[in-house]
Specification:
The protein is mostly helical. 71% of the residues lie in helices and 4% in strands. The chain has a two-stranded antiparallel ribbon with strand order 1-2. Strand 1 and strand 2 form a beta hairpin. The chain is globular and about 50 Å long. The N terminus is likely disordered.
């Protein structure tokens, strides 16, 4: 029983234990998570020839903090907002909105964000986010799956060579930096928290 209590994601310690208050808090966190995802999509950092958004870092941190269920719910709410035409994605509304945008060149990466949240949230639910080594492994696996999904979708649209050249290679180093940041940050937060019985 003690092991089950200690293997909860970060946010669970701040949530009410049950009832309507817990559901309301979870909904508020999911809504706040979608706002963070939107802001991270619109925030660009110039990194050589490619502009890097902070969105993959936001996905990793949300999933690690929220765990599998709430992390996935947050990503699905974000996708629903985008599908309804809200300009929540990186290049919206400039390059389209809604399902038309989601089925475009970034569609595989958007689906990959959901897979990334599932992997990182699963790891957090098992306490891997307390260990630098285990959490780094989970983050790298999540990153690889997200990139593979994005590459496969893009390759179907523009061909494998161009998809690799424009959709993967420019993002390898920036995404590894974001993995390193998340891998260092989340276990550090756990180390600062008082030990619970």
């Amino acid at each position: 029983m003690a092991n089950a209590i200690t293997m909860r994601p970060l946010v669970s310690f701040a949530l009410p234990q049950k009832g309507a208050a817990r559901l309301a808090a979870q909904f508020g966190l999911a809504l706040g998570g979608t706002l963070l995802l939107t802001l991270s999509a619109k925030t660009k950092v110039v990194f050589g020839p490619v502009d890097m958004s902070l969105q993959t870092l936001a996905v990793m941190l949300i999933a690690a903090s929220f765990g599998l269920r709430l992390g996935l719910a947050t990503l699905m709410l974000y996708m629903a907002q985008g599908a309804m035409g809200l300009p929540v994605f990186q290049s919206t509304p400039e390059k389209g909105i809604g399902l038309a945008y989601m089925l475009g060149t970034t569609g595989g990466y958007l689906a990959g964000f959901v897979a990334m949240a599932a992997i990182v949230g699963w790891a957090a639910d098992r306490g891997w986010d307390r260990s630098l080594v285990k959490f780094t492994g989970a983050l790298l696996a999540a990153e690889a799956v997200m990139m593979a999904m994005g590459f496969a979708w893009l390759a179907a649209l523009i061909g494998a060579d161009k998809a690799w050249q424009f959709g993967v290679v420019p993002f390898i180093v920036p995404d590894l930096i974001k993995v390193a940041l998340a891998a260092a940050l989340v276990p550090a937060v756990w180390a600062l928290l008082p030990k619970r019985q």
